[in-house]
């Protein structure tokens, strides 16, 4: 059965969005739609142009016999700026303030469409980077980590604070939490991370960066490498930030728990 | 700037996939593409036909002045059967067996493309149901819960086993774990669930169903209702299953930890 161009474009769009950073051979589409490769090439040119124009992403063509096409998410600033601005407004509600300068973000992190868009935006910054694995720590960072990982076509590994039978053997480290200066433990299933992996660390919230430093120490135990660090929200300017190189979508400043005041602005994402 | 039909179809496809179960007014698309409503209607008819033919989902047209179009995920059996079969094969590896009849599933649950597809398939079964919230318990169920929730346009609430400052005040209950017959505690942030909510419970693994029963008791404390229960994997036929009505994608049978034998088959999903 032959497919019309319009049907091909719709199905291709769905297929490519569902398979980011995966090489799809032209022959795959040619067989799927019983169409000539030349028609498929024309289709893909239209998809690429539209994806770029609408700030969705881009297609990369890999030439040759083993070639094909790969979709990379690239949310345009035109799309991401208003989203981050709205996120800032959502977060600026002083009712969110909790003891210790923490914020109640559970409702925001529980909203899949916010988390997914944030994941697409963060993944856009790493779409050209070599990322083998996305790592986060249980529990709050998990949804964002998956949202990023699904765009980067990378598995997620979850660091835990307690051991579970369903993890099998684990490697654990101790670390100093940056803000509270307490000694804490974190652990990771031994099976879950290969040596020399390039790891993107993703978390929902960063204060001084102690938790992120803990994850970095854990990576060393696996001979793995930090390929990037990205957080949804960073707390107000900390004097002794333990981590220098990171990406944030939102930054808090002038958090005053006593007077229920909180200032929220764009993170460093657009300045990188 | 005018858009050609091909560009409209591509962008519409992306937009609709990104906004499941949300009413999109025809005027929204008409303005977005500077096109007549009649052209948009024709576009949507092509999108609907292709989505249905390719087993992606369907579009529902809501007539009238406040009308528009809604996308519902509906993965066809033609698409979901082979996926579940492959999932069974992946799970059937006897190396996954852990003490107590548990399975090592961390790698599978860590693969966003598997989790996303499983989420689409589960969400297809509830696409016509009224679901206000998807609920799961930390940690392993979280990714699947988000994958389901993002297709149902519903928020996720996460039940925890320990209290965290970032949750604010919580409601807690005790429950008897079905298989180990131990008393356990679970708790949920007070702010996170509205009265009378219709809740879909999602988890990665169900043995006797104690954890699910715990979640149901917790729902009662919030005057909320169970709208459905879905799990990725159910353990082998338990004599005293605490929960009757549930959906599973995969079912274990003849788990023999001593002889490292395990039998895996399709869950009840396709028999419902």
TrEMBL record, chains A, B:
- Keyword set, alphabetical order: DNA-binding, Transcription, Transcription regulation
| Transmembrane spans | none
Keyword Nucleotidyltransferase attached: no
Specify the superkingdom: Bacteria
| Classification via Gene3D superfamilies | 3.40.50.2020, Winged helix-like DNA-binding domain superfamily/Winged helix DNA-binding domain (1.10.10.10)
InterPro entries registered for this protein in UniProt: PRTase-like, PRTase_dom, Pur/Pyrimidine_PRTase, PuR_N, PurR_Bsub, WH-like_DNA-bd_sf, WH_DNA-bd_sf
Ranges for the Bacterial purine repressor N-terminal domain? 4-72
The record ties this protein, via SUPFAM superfamilies, to: PRTase-like (SSF53271), Winged helix' DNA-binding domain (SSF46785)
* One Pfam family from the record: PuR_N
Q: Which residue numbers delimit the Phosphoribosyltransferase domain? A: 107-259
What family, per the record?
A: Belongs to the purine/pyrimidine phosphoribosyltransferase family. PurR subfamily.
Q: Name the NCBIfam families for this protein.
A: purR_Bsub
Assembly and interaction partners: Homodimer.
For this entry, the protein name equals Pur operon repressor
Its taxonomic placement starts with: Bacteria, Bacillati, Bacillota, Bacilli, Bacillales
